[in-house]
Amino acid sequence: MNIYTEKVIEHFKNPRNQGKLKDYDAVGEKGNPICVPPATKIFCNSETEVIKNLEIGDRVLSHDGKYHKVKKIYKRKYSGNLVTIKTGLGEVSATEDHHILAIKIPEGQKFYRTENRKKLVNNKFWYHISDLKRRDLLLYPILKEIKDKKSIELSFKKSKWDFRSKEIPKKINLDEDFLRLCGYYLSEGSARTKTSQTYVTLTFGMKDKEHVKDAAKIVKKIFGIDAKINYKPERKTINVVIYSVEVTKIFKILFGKGAENKRIPHFMMILPPMKQKGLISGLWKGDGYLNPKKPRAGYATISYELSQQIKTLLLRQGIIPSIYKEKEKVLKGVKHRKSYRIHIGDRFSLKKLAKILGKTLTTKKDSMTISWMDENYLYTHISKVESKYYNGYVHNLDVEESKTYVTEPAILHNCGDVMHIYIKVKNDRIVDIGWETMGCAAAIATTSILSEMAKGKTLDEAMKLTRENVADELDGLPPVKMHCSNLAADALHEAIKNYREKHKKVKSK
Amino acid sequence: MIYLDNTTTTQMDERVLPFMKRYQTEEYGVAISDYSPSFLMKSKEALKNVQEIIAGKINCKPEEITFTSGQAESNNQVLKGVKGHIITTKIEHSSIIETCKDLEKKGYSITYIGVDKEGFIDLGQLKKSLRNNTVLVSIQHANQEVGTIQDIKKIGLLCREHKILFHVDASQSFLKELIDVQKMNIDLLTLTAHLIHGPKGIGALYIRNGTKLEPLVYGTRIFDIPGIAGFGEAIKLWGSKDIEKMRSQKEKLIKELKKIPNTSIFGPINNSLPNTLFVGFKFIEGESIVLYLDTEGIVLSTGSACAGKGLRPSHVLEAMGYNEEYSHGSIRIGLSRFTTSEEIDITLKKIKEIVEKLRKMSPIKK
Prior knowledge:
The structure holds 2 protein chains of 2 kinds. Chain A is 29% helix and 32% strand.
């Protein structure tokens, strides 16, 4: 292969110092793993969890729309640039050489049109996050897991002090009606659990008489309870109140405590999409709107979790949402909390949503489509790319089978060269060095020659060795290989840092 | 040197050269019309002769054979010669895929049929993809990387029922697999000489009588008569024993390579070309294997190459649903008529050596 110098080939064929040291003092591990800041939210069993709290065995969403087990968790210190990418679905930050599933849009006016962009779907590829720019497309998976559940069983003992509540059925059918009631609750409901004041309130607007009726009817049908309907003209609301300890408990267990923490349970998220239409319908009739004239639709909630779950539900219906964060603000003297607004503007999506809500679009006006989806992915364009210096811990996951995991707007992948460098230190000098690597000839040769260069040097001297020094010593490397295959110097620095950290601790003891 | 990159190209048989020389330096004239002087008419005879040879191999009329500069030109001629919806597969040669991408940019619609884990196309998807304006179905006979042989007869029948032109790229399979354009209902067939120990830069295109194609090149063409003559001679030199030999060599390779743990063979065992083998070794990188074998005098290529900043698996493996983990450490072995059993033994020994050596270096071994 002519792209390599003789020296590279020589080191590749006869690598020096290869192998793991038996009694090493420190090890430096390097590769091009995905690393993201600790607060990055990862989709895990239908909810999001910040990456630093994930554990081995947790099941995270992957590019195939299915959940896979976390096999390994990594954490390391990092100082350098973090790239942040924003789309209509949210944002993600990661170290520069992370692989992210994307489509690069070629230059030129031709690709301003969505129809032409759609032709590029076969070009999807794992790009380094730093290679992406505004207008490029990110892929987002559609949740594929489906598990039907016909009913839920209840096993509550009646509380001693509960004299008022009626008995409710031990089994509730998970039908469209019940799911719509769940939607109402997620949007408008609150549960109160003070002793002897345990009840569920659904708060509707004065105009929503139809929904009030519907909710009361479902409560009667499922629980056999007559809900109380309270008109509160001073607050401009109509309240549907269900006085039942058991019903209150059910809603609390299913959907979490407090409006900010509302969320949909996992089993409901993986119900067949047909059934989930009921849930969406209830949600939308509560906190959502659909303007058939404009046309546009939206939904607002103060629960982050719920906003992300609604995104997943909508995608399963073939509806394309985008999410905006609205900051805390005071409007007309009323304090509004931080909220998440889901917006739907695409005509095909609106048609589908209108059908679920039993409405029809009354305008033929077309809306601009910049995102689209097929059976596997949603394609959204990048609205912003930023690069910022970061100093702190970064995290990474190794996921079984799929090797990928999903953040707010994107699918991340971990692959690349993996390199371990082991050092033995005496009097601040590297007396022995060993290494392991999986990689191309350049990766092997750079590590081999670096091990020769570092052996015998003091730690300070070794810290000064750079990627460029290594490449020069090999009489040069092809440019393609400078970035991803020349990691040996970085791994050595990592090993020295680890050694010093360990040593510091011993000293301070 | 041990040359095992025969799916990319082959060594020309030395016995072909005298024929080419004859039409290059002795009978070099080219006849434009039938009323040319007899010296010039010798070129016509040569051309006709090779047309007959090819026609005999694929069961068509000699005049249905035209000559091109090879696989890429033949494929380009077919795709650009029609106007309308085209159906092809995700695992075609780049001269199909890239041309289709260009056609898409020009506004034509193309459907790419997916394949299963062994590389066989999804006939159901093919049926569903047929439209009123579909003008052409273009599907390779055998795959250039994994060797999968498609059920051309079935596809041909389907196309005939729907009265759609059927093009087959048989560059890899010609002479290695039986082709009968009548039985298989093939309307257009791509052939190339350099993969059967013929000269480089010469190919043929079978066009069924009555098929309308917009020409790619206009005007009088001075055909590469020496190349055509070489093509004909290369076909004549091919024998059925050669295929049996390659098949047994391939079987031996599979048997021995499978003994190395964490090794996978891509593509089917049956219904596969006798000379093509695509094998992946986990935990190591293909480039390293190829480079090491290169220094040992063994020539073959890898299944994934460093493209820009990332390692990208071949589009064939990607379509078959393999992810990077498998395709990273993959190599392609292409056998030829000249490959000896001794060479196979040496190659096996060296592959085992390097896989073991690289795995020892790799931190991910389990």
